[in-house]
Amino acid sequence: MLLIRPAVTALIACLVCALMLPSARAQRLALSFDDGYNPDQLANARELNNQLLKTLKDNEVKSILFVAGARVDSQDGMYLVAQWLQQGHEVGNHSYSHLNLGRVDVSLDAYLSDMERNESLLARLPSWARRYRFPYLKEGDTLAKRDGVRQWLSAHHYGSGAVTIDASDWYYDQRLRAWMAAHPGQAPQAFKQPYIRHVLDRARYYAGLARQTMGREVDHVLLLHTNTINALFLDDVIAALREAGWKLIDPSEAYADSVYEQAPDVLPAGESLVWSLAKKQGLKGLRYPAESDAYEKPVLDALGL
Ligand SMILES: [Zn+2]
């Protein structure tokens, strides 16, 4: 009896666990960073790069840096990119010139040449991952451009470089840098909580959108940039994400989710993958995806930041 009771208790516990599994699965996301710090434009590029990499290391998080070649095409720039590889992160293709495929004046041929030009630059690194991140998340304003690039990526054995959570960290960064310029010598700590709240809110929004479009949780990829705000506050953002129940996973693990095999038939193409799926499905009340300053500006204005 004494021996049986723990066994029965364990069995019941197992059954309870199994029943709870679908809803108990932690929400998971991988971090991805676009562009690369440009030492020609940022005097403290090396310091910011070090700080961001230290945060990732301290938190035992692996990420992927999508490099826009023109921003790092120098000895210093490529050195900073190589640091990411050295610390176990991946490096992917983000085009050379950061062209916008949604623009009518950007041709398919020019765009493909620019992607190849970046491959030549990445080939100088010890390794790089065959994943492509569309600049501005724009995947084409015409069928010919959209499908032309999709075919090129497939022929060149690229895996997905898509984003599901588009957090417009660039706008918060822009405001933070403007504030720092106007308040020399002062620490921009007032941005920390609003920025954390913003990223959590966006993660929640796109997780909801994924459930609506896919009928399940997906492994998310969050779009961030190599900028000042992440060098300063990513550590706190990661802590807050974990606190809110998010499990941080490697990008390669996230991209193994079958959601990244989807290529929504919409035009103009692009944006967050789950936003694009929602658009294809005709979901009502879909807000504009790019999180333009129409959404973020009033929040920061009200805070006087
Ligand atoms: Zn970019």
What does this structure look like?
The chain is an alpha/beta fold and 305 residues long. It has a single domain (25-302), classed as TIM Barrel. Helix content is 50%, strand content 11%. It contains twelve helices and eight strands. It has helices at residues 4-24, 45-58, 69-72, 75-86, 108-122, 143-155, 169-182, 192-214, 228-243, 251-254, 273-280, 293-302, and strands spanning 27-35, 64-67, 90-93, 138-140, 165-166, 220-225, 246-248, 269-270. Strands 1, 2, 3, 5, 6 and 7 form a six-stranded parallel sheet that branches. β1 (27-35), α2 (45-58) and β2 form a beta-alpha-beta unit. The longest helix has 23 residues, at 192-214. The termini are far apart. Mean pLDDT is 92; it is low at 16-23. The structure holds zinc ion (ZN). The site of zinc ion has 6 residues, from β1.
